[in-house]
């Protein structure tokens, strides 16, 4: 098996495992509101002492199809590039996506960098025809939906 085929096989198996794990943790399988997405994200990443940026892809019925950790950063920062975010969207044939990250400080208030990357991801998705539905930031027991706050 060539290295390219092996890499494709690993991606396929990873996506399949994510789908199975997601269905076990989230049996209703439909994201109807930011609370649904925040709860699923909290279950999947648990407590982290560093900033973690993740993407959840959804089909046309808002059912999760894949969940990918895009970046694991430092105590207060994470490097995120649209190329890495939309790669998983293309692989999983996503109709839309939601982005998530945590603030280890416990305060989920979006920073100026959070707002900037959200706008950049939204604009990139518009070009690709994949809608960014929301960017959710988790804190200690609470969360902020950037869409509900009108920040995207």
From TrEMBL:
Keyword Manganese: no
GO biological-process terms attached to the record: proteolysis
Keyword entries, A-Z: Hydrolase, Metal-binding, Metalloprotease, Protease, Zinc
UniProt xrefs under InterPro entries: MPN, RadC_JAB, UPF0758, UPF0758_CS
GO molecular function: metal ion binding; metallopeptidase activity
Annotated MPN domain residues: 30-152
Gene3D superfamilies per the UniProt record, alphabetical: Cytidine Deaminase, domain 2 (3.40.140.10)
Pfam (any one): RadC
Source organism superkingdom: Bacteria
Similarity remark: Belongs to the UPF0758 family.
Protein name: DNA repair protein RadC
Species the sequence originates in: Paenibacillus sophorae
Upper taxonomic lineage: Bacteria, Bacillati, Bacillota, Bacilli, Bacillales
Gene: radC
């Amino acid at each position: 098996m060539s290295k390219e085929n092996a890499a494709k096989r690993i991606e396929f198996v990873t996506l399949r495992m994510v789908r199975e794990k997601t269905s076990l943790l989230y049996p209703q399988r439909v994201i109807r509101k930011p609370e649904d997405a925040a709860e699923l994200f909290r279950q999947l990443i648990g407590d982290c002492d560093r900033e973690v940026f993740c993407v959840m892809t959804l089909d046309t019925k808002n059912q999760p199809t894949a969940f990918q950790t895009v970046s694991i950063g430092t105590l207060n920062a994470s490097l995120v590039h649209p190329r890495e975010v939309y790669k998983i969207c293309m692989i999983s044939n996503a109709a839309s996506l939601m982005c998530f990250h945590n603030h280890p400080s416990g305060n989920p208030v979006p920073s100026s960098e959070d707002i900037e990357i959200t706008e950049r991801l939204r604009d990139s998705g518009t070009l690709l025809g994949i809608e960014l539905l929301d960017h959710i930031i988790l804190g200690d027991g609470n969360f902020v939906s950037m869409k509900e706050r009108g920040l995207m």
